[in-house]
Amino acid sequence: MIKGxxxxxxxxxxxxxxxxxxxxxxxxxxxxxxxxxEKSQRFVKYDKLKNxxxxxxxxxxxxxxxxxxxxxxxxxxxELNFDYYQLYDVSPERTKEIKLRYKKKIITAITVSNKEDxxxxxxxxxxxxxxxxxxxxxxxxxxxxxxxxxxxxxxLNKMIAGNIQIDDIPNFRNxxxxxxxxxxxxxxxxxxxxxxxDKLLNLFTKI
Length: 207
Hints:
There is one protein chain. The chain has 207 residues and is of the alpha/beta class. It is 23% helix and 21% strand. It is built from 6 helices and 8 strands. An 8-stranded parallel beta barrel has the order 1-2-3-4-5-6-7-8.
């Protein structure tokens, strides 16, 4: 069964508070904040981010999404209200260093276009708390062939992204993934749509 839900790219307090106070959010709900990737329209500058996440999380897990973070960035955010660091383009050795130094749980993001990409999870399975399989698109909400993950063992704690739509959620009913959505929850201007988030969260009560 689906293990949980992550809503990524939240950047404003109205959306954040809506999710935190929704009656039908799953027991394991995660919210991702784009912390250092300025190419993304979902990027949140430090001062705004600091204030945004300084809230009662109500058992929701807060995720800092980081692409090749420098020591300067990590030192700057180390006191912020995050439970996990989600790392893109970070080696196993650097991942271990970050985990030990900052005492955060780690989501390693592996971007996938073929089977060779998928098996990279083996390099992180003993380091990372969750392995995320995402597309190569980063901020562009691109898709990849999710059937490439059929060979990944069930015991791996894993998350799946890659332009997943709300109506795709029932297809994951029998999969042991945390499901990660972002672009599917936005309006035509790239802003989070409360109506779409409501539809998603209510759907979880039916699966």
